[in-house]
Amino acid sequence: MIFTAGKFGLLAQLNPFRLELRSNLQEPDRWLVEYAGGHPTASGQTMTERTAMQLSAVWCAVGLISDSLANSPLCMFEKLANDDGRREAEDHPLYALLHDQPNEEMTAHTFMKTLAGHFLLWGNGYAEIERNGAGEVVALWPLRPDRTFPRRKIGPSGKGTGKLVYIARSSAGPEIELRPDQVLHVMGYSYDGLRGLSPVALHRESMGLSMAAADYGARFFGNDARPGGVLSYPGTLKIEAAKRLKESWEEAHRGGDQSHRVAVLENGVKWEPVSMSNEDAQYLATRIFQLSEISRMYHVPLHKLGELSHATFSNIEDQEIEYVKGAVLPWAESIEQEIFRKLIKPTLPAGKTFYSEFNLEGAMRGDPESRAKYYDTMGMKGYMCADEVRKRENMNPLPNGQGKVFFIPVTQQPVDRAINPPEPPPASNIGPDGKPVLPGGSKNPAPPPADAKAKKRHAQELADRRRQVALAFAPALATVGDRLARKEAAALQRSTADPDNFFREHLPYVREALLPVLTCIEESVSMLVRMEGHTAAIPDRDKFIAGYADTFAHRYVKEALVNHVGKAAIWANGINERAHEEAMRASNAFAVHLYKASGVKRLAWIVPDTGCDSECLSFAARFHAPDAAHPPMGARCECQIVAVD
Fold it and tell me: Over pLDDT 70: what percentage of the chain?
């Protein structure tokens, strides 16, 4: 209080900062409300931000949201020029302050959890911004929301039209006045944009009813969890006798530790219960409803508060994501925008764009299967590389930059190779060994070796090359098989599923899923056959590949209709094994038709050096016509057909 001399002597000036005082009986300051005992409610309970935390639902909701924010890293980023993405600005002065330690007494987790608890209960979170002599931010200190007040100074007209200031009251010292650039202010819903509304004050009746229900339950069990009643005496009792009877009854039977004792009633005294039972009073239903009221207040799903009576567990993952979007993300954006306005923008270098951002990806991550599908799609489309996936899964990058390569469909080749594919050597410049002919050499392919051993060795080399191509495409076929298996399993698990109709309608999907991989296999095999000197292409190539895919799909569906199993039917012995077999079959089928188009008359069945079964060995003992059967003869067969003309 400051005393000044005026015309009428000493004048007590109660407003030394010349502020617009808004606290009144209609809208009192928070400290005045708490000093007076809090907000009274119709249920008889007095609610303040501190008493609200005695409700387990409020404690859980506030703890969940504040933990979600505190557990999410708050990082600094710089936008790169020419819209070239962004980088994590670990060298920025604010990075360590926001990410690690905002002041010498708190970790970033403690600071954010405290700030979040303030604005979730009081509707306002304040932090004092400490700067050094150069104006650089060196620390952030939380301010108590019940002792910090935004005010406008009184302008020349005598009204609150002056500058905005913050008045902070300390429990150990006097009030201090802070400028807006000295206070980080995160607020909730507000009527005037200066001060957020307290959720506890707005919803005190709902919280008061929850508190009253909890208090009722405590008193109920404190009275031995039995309905109240009367002791009936056939005669007339004096006041003192009735009082002694009541006290002796309560002393013997009140409280949980004295429950289920035997009562002995004399002189015709009877116990007559008169109150409603717990079920009649709908006590439990009231408590569950009040739990949903608090859930709505904070946009927290009921299952996050431990209420699982109506949970189906079929959409918990979606509810987790909705929780982040509805309860956490709005507060995260408010904090980010206030940090940019108060901390980053005042010292932003010319031509630079820095900003802070919470990393909420961890909170929005789905289950492992959903993440695998997402990463598979992003990788197949060329949107993410392996190192980016590994980083999100908290794994180290692959060595030697292997994980920085991007791939695209259909052939799963590097992007730069797809954009600038190498020019293949002319077929006429390819020698019999598959290598280009040197300048000045013969442009015509050399004849096969005349020596029998050399011929055999040459044929084995040709078979080995095609075998490697088939093995390279086996994982792609396995991926298709896995996708088909998941689709079939999901469809057949439905109670109304009709396997016959499903698999018949499934045939076009199987064909379209296989066609891209089969096209790539044909292209690779065709290049190898041209390198052997057989340059003719398959007539109506696209039609032939589509026909092969259609035959494959019919074979697949036919076996599925026989087995009626909820996985890749023709690969019932294992997806990888059958993918291996189908890759070998496609490789040989395409090679045979390419040889046939080139006029080859004799083919040899080449068994790998590792050997094969007796049936394959018998085929390898003689030559074959292009129309004869071709490998594989089993799931692990890797034999190849090559031309010997």
Answer: 69
Distance set, CA 5 to CA 10, 12, 247 (Å): 5, 9, 67
421-430 long-range CB contacts below 8 Å, 24 or more apart? 424/527, 427/530, 427/531, 427/533, 427/535, 428/535, 430/530, 430/531, 430/533
pLDDT, residue 426, reads 54
Distance from C-alpha of 372 to C-alpha of 316, rounded to nearest angstrom: 18
Looking at 194-347, which runs of residues are DSSP E strands?
A: 229-232, 270-273
Q: Is residue 580 part of a domain?
A: yes
The 10s digit of each residue's pLDDT in 327-362 is 999 999 999 999 999 999 888 887 788 999 998 876
Same domain? For 409 and 551 the reply is no
Amino acid at 564: H
DSSP helix, strand, coil percent of the chain (3-state; round to 5): 50, 15, 40
Range of the domain at 485: 449-643
Question: CA angle, 34 as apex, 43 and 183 as ends, to 5°?
Answer: 130
What's the whole-number average pLDDT of the chain?
Answer: 76
> Which candidate, 436, 610, 630, 399, places its Cα nearest to that of 530?
436
- Degrees (nearest 5) of the Cα angle 258, 262, 265? 115
| 42 in Cβ contact with 208 (< 8 Å) | yes
- Answer yes or no: are the C-beta atoms of 142 and 126 closer than 8 Å: yes
In a domain, 601, yes or no: yes
Kindly state the helix (H) or strand (E) to which residue 407 belongs, with its residue range.
Answer: strand 407-408
Same structural domain, 247 and 382: no
**φ, ψ dihedrals at 603, nearest 5°:** -125, 150
Q: Which residues contact 505 (CB under 8 A, 6 or more apart)?
A: none
Cα distance between residue 437 and residue 212, in whole Å: 94
